[in-house]
Write a structure and sequence with these properties.
Blueprint lengths: L5 E4 L3 H12 L4 E6 L12 E5 L5 H11 L9 E4 L2 H9 L1 H5 L11 H6 L1 H10 L7 E4 L2 H8 L9 E5 L2 H8 L4 E3 L2 H13 L4 E5 L8 E8 L5 E13 L5 E7 L3 H14 L3 E10 L4 E8 L6 H6 L4 H9 L18 E3 L1 H13 L5 H7 L15 H18 L1 H5 L1
Parallel strand pairs: 1-2, 1-4, 2-3
Antiparallel strand pairs: 5-8, 6-7, 6-8, 9-10, 9-12, 10-11, 11-14, 12-13
Helix pairs in contact: 2-3, 7-9
């Protein structure tokens, strides 16, 4: 039972974190992900399947796991590290469960949590505050908002209800809208692309007001652990990717997160992010993920191996439910240097962060999403990929040539 293999579906830095965690336990790992991802450049001896360019993730999963699956993967524990992996597991749950070990999940609820509008509706039913929002399904819905009488307080966020196809088309997860002209242009482009949208208020205040809660609920709704962290910086500021994370026990975040998950009836792994709205003192739900997230390594570095705990539970090694208190080290950080440099320049330009203050914030031991002294190539690959993407965005015509 100690060497039951692990299957990691999609992901990059989260897949890399899992590969290292299970390698330390001598557990065989197989990673199935996009061919351009940095995790595939690891020196660890795990099996890897690189998805060919242009092939849909679900088609690749089906080809590897169901059409002609390797015999030695029978009974493997499956971890989803992306939304597309969640979609595949929900769609093929019966076929997968016949061959592999799947986490405790609700195939009806998980797709609902991928829908940002439905997530906000579920939050309301669970009594968890969330940003105000409006649906935009048709051009008529958009025209109502563009009417001069509509009470839209800019800036606002324009989000797709489903992010996967939107990201592929627009290379971003949302639009920040500063005026009616931007709302008209970007809203019409998104609707023409076939996306259902929501227009949500932008909760004011710095990114340090963001916090997250993680847990895992079994079939009876018992939590396996409680974990909270906060954001120090992200880029772009107020709506971008996390650049600098820190573990911190936040009882209000834990209480609100557990209330949300219990209210919606989650089973399995869940992560929910909140932002403190200083206008009314409430934590408001920003997004939810029912899978291993990109920042998984910060929990591992703090002494909480989330995937390892789930692996043990699925193999019948079940610990008692934890107390509502931290079982990990606080003050542990996860730093994305290439993103945080951009965050620093943006904050500095607005007079919100000096060079000295930025350097002081980094003057402690750091953990990184990819960098390992015994496995350095994925970090270099991630850095070069980031630099290439920024050059292509800055000089699109030159990169096209």
């Amino acid at each position: 039972m100690n060497n039951v293999p692990v299957l990691v579906l999609e992901g990059d830095e989260n897949a890399f974190s899992l590969a290292h965690s299970f390698h330390r336990r001598n557990v065989p790992v197989t990673v199935i992900t996009a061919g351009e991802n940095s995790v595939l450049h690891s020196r660890l001896p795990f099996r890897r399947y690189a998805r060919p360019a242009g092939m849909a993730p679900n088609d690749h999963f089906e080809q590897v796991l169901l059409d002609k699956p390797p015999a030695d993967l029978e009974g493997a524990v499956v971890f989803a590290c992306s939304d597309s992996a969640i979609e595949f597991i929900c769609a093929q749950r019966d076929a997968l469960a016949a061959r592999y070990r799947l986490d405790t999940q609700d195939r009806a609820l998980q797709p609902m949590l991928l829908d940002k509008r439905t997530t906000l509706e579920l939050a309301a039913r669970a009594g968890v505050p969330a940003p105000a929002y409006r649906r935009i399904v048709t051009p008529g819905d958009l025209e109502v908002l563009l009417d001069g009488e509509a009470a839209v307080q800019f800036p606002v966020l324009l989000k797709p209800t489903y992010a996967l196809r939107f990201r592929a088309q627009f290379a971003c997860k949302l639009f920040v809208i500063n005026n009616r002209d931007e709302l008209a242009t970007k809203g019409r482009a998104a609707l023409e692309g076939g996306h259902e949208l929501i227009l949500t208020e932008l909760i004011p205040g710095p990114d340090t007001l963001l916090s997250s809660y993680y847990t895992h609920l079994d079939a009876e709704g018992r939590p396996l652990f409680h974990f909270t962290k906060r954001i120090i910086r992200r880029s772009p500021v107020q709506f971008g990717a996390g650049a600098y994370h820190e573990t911190k026990w936040l009882p209000r975040t834990a209480e609100a997160g557990l209330r949300f998950f219990e209210g919606v009836g989650l089973k399995g792994l869940g992560n929910v992010e909140f932002k403190l709205d200083e206008r009314d003192g409430q934590l408001k739900l920003i997004e939810c993920n029912a899978r291993i997230t990109a920042a998984n390594e910060i929990a591992v570095a703090a002494g909480l191996d989330i995937a390892g705990l789930i692996y043990d539970r699925l193999l019948g090694r079940e610990p008692p439910p934890p107390a509502m208190e931290p079982a990990y080290r606080e003050g542990v950080t996860l730093w994305y240097p290439e993103i945080d440099v951009t965050a620093f320049w943006e904050l500095r330009a607005h007079g919100e962060l000096t060079l000295l203050a930025w350097l002081k914030s980094l003057a402690r031991p750091q953990h990184f999403p990819f960098l390992r002294m015994n496995d350095p190539v994925p970090a270099l690959h991630a850095l070069f990929t980031c630099l290439r993407e920024r050059i292509e965005r800055r000089f699109p015509r030159a990169s096209a040539r």
